[in-house]
């Protein structure tokens, strides 16, 4: 993943080793980072217990919102993939107790297949 891909919104997987220090205070004892996907400054991080959506706000990105979603609360998810003239895909996740889904815009190949695979693997049985 290069700088041009990131600026165009095509960023994909991020190395979890580089995120370990930032996420250490957010993790429960024994919880481990599995994979992470990024789009410019925002991240979708998968651990062995939950998914964390990271929204860096403002010009400097110093204000950060972390949304922790336990896998057991995910009721349904969908992805609208990018077409020939579309530049991005959209991920929607429905949580129990909420009528509206959480939506995140991903790049054309922002790890969509890998994200779907991880959600399917961690989905409640």
UniProtKB/TrEMBL annotation:
Residues 2-122 form the Bacterial Pleckstrin homology domain. It comes from the Bacteria. Transmembrane segments: none annotated. InterPro entries: PHb, PHb_sf. Pfam families: bPH_1. Gene3D superfamilies: Bacterial Pleckstrin homology domain. This is PH domain-containing protein. It comes from Lysobacter arvi.
